[in-house]
Design goal:
Keywords: 2Fe-2S, 3Fe-4S, 4Fe-4S, Iron, Iron-sulfur, Metal-binding, Oxidoreductase, Tricarboxylic acid cycle. This protein is about 30% helix and about 15% strand. By secondary structure, it is α+β, with helices and mostly antiparallel strands. A five-stranded mixed sheet has the order 2-1-5-3-4, covered by helices on one side. A two-stranded antiparallel ribbon has the order 6-7. The longest helix has 14 residues.
Length: about 260
């Protein structure tokens, strides 16, 4: 057998860097409103590299076993946030969740994120989530004449809201919140995070307007500080801290 053929055989039996491949069970919560009366679980056997992502296994299932499986994905690198789903009971991005970190000796469960209507399989209706995002006016509001040069900002002022600029709108935080599950009117952590990003921006003139929006009974005061959102965030944003800072700004009427 030639060296090239030997290398091919070894690669087929092993994953990256010679790591043995393994057969895993991926248990997916399926639902097709056109034919199903209720959601149900379906098991799939997949050969996977332990260092591979759950997204890779979902691709294998869709491309090789069941083309009807429906889920969202785009960049596959943890930037777009479109493949947020509930994996082994926790909100994660499928493109960042590795097989080896999910106890692959047992069935790995995959289901849609909670609190939003399921359209099909792992795809949920994101419109309520994005409506809350739009409601907090997540854009720069500047009064007065159009500037003749850049709006200069010090590094210290930029650092003040740096953490909340990292949000990728995956909805993992909002759909991990028990208040959001039970109260369809609550703005949710992601909307508050994106309001924070502009409330504390020294170039913005709309802080008071956003604070009044979040002072609503379904705004920041509905937060119960369970830290689910912070734990679920794939970008490591200190969400609970950001919500606390917005609450403090409402009480003191000071944005510092």
């Amino acid at each position: 057998m030639s060296t090239a053929v030997e290398e091919h055989v070894e690669t087929s039996a092993s994953g990256k860097a010679g790591i043995p491949m393994m057969t895993i069970t991926v248990r997916i919560r399926r639902y097709n409103p056109e034919v199903d009366a209720a959601p149900h679980w379906v098991d799939y056997q997949v050969t996977a590299d332990p260092t591979a992502r759950i997204l890779d296994s979902l691709h294998k299932i869709k491309w090789e076993q069941d083309g009807s499986l429906t889920f969202r994905r785009s960049c596959a690198h943890g930037v777009c946030g479109s493949d947020a789903m509930r994996i082994n009971g926790k909100n994660r991005l499928a493109c960042k969740a590795l097989v080896k970190d999910l106890n692959p000796t047992s069935a790995i469960t995959v289901e849609p994120i909670q609190g939003l209507p399921v359209l099909k399989d792992l795809v949920v209706d994101m419109e309520p989530f994005f409506q809350a995002y739009r409601d907090v006016k997540p854009f720069l509001i500047a009064h007065g004449n159009e500037p003749t040069r850049e709006r200069i900002q010090s590094q210290k002022d930029r650092d003040r809201f740096d953490d909340t600029t990292k949000c990728i709108l995956c909805a993992a935080c909002t759909t991990s919140c028990p208040v959001f599950w039970t109260d369809g009117q609550y703005f949710g952590p992601a909307a508050i995070v994106n309001a924070h990003r502009f409330i504390f921006d020294s170039r913005d003139d709309g802080a008071n307007e956003r604070l009044e929006i979040l002072n609503d009974r379904e705004g920041v005061w509905r937060c119960r500080t369970t830290f689910n959102c912070t734990e679920a965030c794939p970008r490591g944003i200190q969400i609970t801290q950001a919500i606390a800072e917005v609450k403090r700004a409402l009480i003191t009427r000071r944005v510092i």
